[in-house]
Amino acid sequence: MKMLERISDYAGKYMACIALAVAIIAMIIPGPVSAVLKTSYVNVLLGIVMFGMGMTLKLSDFKVVFTKPKAVLVGIAAQFVIMPALALLLVTVFQLPPELAVGVILVGSCPGGTSSNVMTYLAKGDVALSVGMTACTTVMAPIVTPLLVLLLAGQTVDVDVASMFMSIVQVVLVPIAAGFLINRFFSKFAAACEKVLPLVSVTGISLIIMAVVSANASKLATVGLLVVAVVVLHNLLGYALGYAAGRMLGLSKAQMRTLSVEVGMQNSGLATSLATVHFASMPLAAVPGAVFSVWHNISGAVYANLLARTAASPADHAADTEKAA
Fold first, then answer.
1. Long-range contacts (CB closer than 8 Å, 24 or more residues apart) made by 232-235
2. What is the pLDDT of residue 319?
3. Which residue stretches of the chain have pLDDT < 70?
4. Separation CA 9–CA 196 (nearest Å)
5. How far apart are CA 54 and CA 112, in angstroms?
6. pLDDT digits 0-9 by tens, 19-41
7. 3-state SS of 171-218?
8. Looking only at Cα atoms, what is the longest distance across the chain?
9. pLDDT at position 234, please?
10. d(CA 323, CA 317)
11. What's the pTM?
């Protein structure tokens, strides 16, 4: 068990490198990879990742909604306004074809990613706020995400809001709820599993990346640089505007760092899953989500390190805490 825990710890620390490595492998040998990993497995894999997230949640994680309502409301609004708006702006500026455009819009319309909680910790942000924001936006996703996709892409492609709602409930809410209940009623078992959950998450996301990249390897060779450019801009602008929103609305420095990371890092696994299921006739729609999964773990690790270096001194932190209270 200790060996498994060490492997899990290693996987969590080097997730960015692992995600990049599996993407390269899937590009180099797409045939063998796609023969083993079908895109139809994406939903199951995402469900496993969400189940692991649920096992880490407690009722106390939602307490932040009542103790720091301003920060939570600002975060939710920023998440579901900034990233969708940036997605629409980028697909318009770069004149992306419908397949790629709907994929970018899906990424922008999704809730915050689970990796954001780890990056917030590394950035010396407000981890409780990060967990609370991720939980809240994830719970809201079945309603908000389909409506945003309909609003932003409905004139270009057919968007089945009801079907998308059910998909998010099935692959996100149900697994999270199941994990949450296990943590609630079988806390000792959940605590024993907690140290290996990073390995489960990294494995699930890595397999999703490999499935999507291998299935679209030939098309990625022609549009890959364009997709990477849009994804990188989407992510970096999300960090910048998230931080700016926190500063403009008077949040503490720790909360600004948290908001920046939360806004910039999306649940790209969900975007990939929705693209695979609901836009199956447009295979490239799943590519932006897969590329985002790789990139945001790389940028998140670097950005969190930069934020941590500029974190306030202990005296400033005390004043910061008083301001956030």
1. 232/295, 232/299, 233/90, 234/83, 234/86, 234/87, 234/90, 234/104, 234/107, 234/108, 234/292, 235/264, 235/265, 235/292, 235/295, 235/296, 235/299
2. 44
3. 1, 312-325
4. 8
5. 14
6. 888 888 988 898 888 888 887 78
7. HHHHHHHHHHHHHHHCHHHHHHHHCCHHHHHHHHHHHHHHHHHHHCHH
8. 57
9. 96
10. 10
11. 0.85
Question: What pLDDT, on the 0 to 100 scale, is given for residue 141?
Answer: 92
CB atoms within 10 A of CB 315: 8
Per-residue pLDDT, 259: 94
pLDDT at 325: 46
Q: What is the 3-class SS of the chain, one letter each residue?
A: CHHHHHHHHHHHHCHHHHHHHHHHHHHHCHHHHHHHCCHHHHHHHHHHHHHHHHCCCCHHHHCHHHHCHHHHHHHHHHHHHHHHHHHHHHHHHCCCCHHHHHHHHHHHHCCECCHHHHHHHHCCCCHHHHHHHHHHHHHHHHHHHHHHHHHHHCCCCCCCHHHHHHHHHHHHHHHHHHHHHHHHHCHHHHHHHHCCHHHHHHHHHHHHHHHHHHHCHHHHHHHHHHHHHHHHHHHHHHHHHHHHHHHHCCCCHHHHHHHHHHHHCECHHHHHHHHHHHCCCCHHHHHHHHHHHHHHHHHHHHHHHHHHHCCCCHHHHHHHHHHHC
